[in-house]
């Protein structure tokens, strides 16, 4: 397996640091995102990277497994030589994503295809992740409290909101005997 180190400033997830009127605090450089695969193609003209076979992404915020990963970067505006946040990432075939949100809640998501989209339009940030499946295998998200399948499933990273179409939910609260609490089984998704 070829080992390819590709530094993506916040490749799949991280948010930009907030601006203040005071002196800028020195932040440590972001940890790199490491991508391994059987093969990779980089097209500098189209600003696209394609990874094939046993793809694994290790990022400080997310771990992703799939068979095909396509990453598109916005066109170079001539003002910077730095790699910028991808505006489109598509993972295909047996996609498995594990991440922990800023509150420590763990998520395990499986799908056949996952599409991450990022854009800023009129100073408004849009950042979504679309999960789709196959007719016999819908996308699924698991948390400590619930297992939810849906086709499709959309995660709005800006508003921290999951949207489900025709969902089927299994409450882990019921599986674990309730734990003596009346907490909602969806609390982890609605935090």
Beginning-to-end CA distance, first to last residue? 39 Å
Number of strands: 13
Largest sheet: 13 strands, antiparallel
Secondary structure class reads mainly beta
Low-pLDDT residue intervals, each spanning 5 or more residues: 1-21
Sheet-strand content, in percent, reads over 45%
Provide the gyration radius in Å: 18 Å
- Number of helical segments with 4 or more residues: 2
The H/E string reads EEEEEEEEEEEEEHH
Helix content class: under 10%
Average pLDDT, all residues: 79
- The backbone outline, from C-alpha atoms, is globular
Description of the molecule:
It contains 2 helices and 13 strands, in the order E-E-E-E-E-E-E-E-E-E-E-E-E-H-H. Strands 1, 2, 3, 4, 5, 6, 7, 8, 9, 10, 11, 12 and 13 form a 13-stranded antiparallel sheet that branches. Strand 3 (39-43) and strand 4 (48-58) form a beta hairpin. The model is unreliable at 1-21 (pLDDT under 50). 4% of the residues lie in helices and 48% in strands.
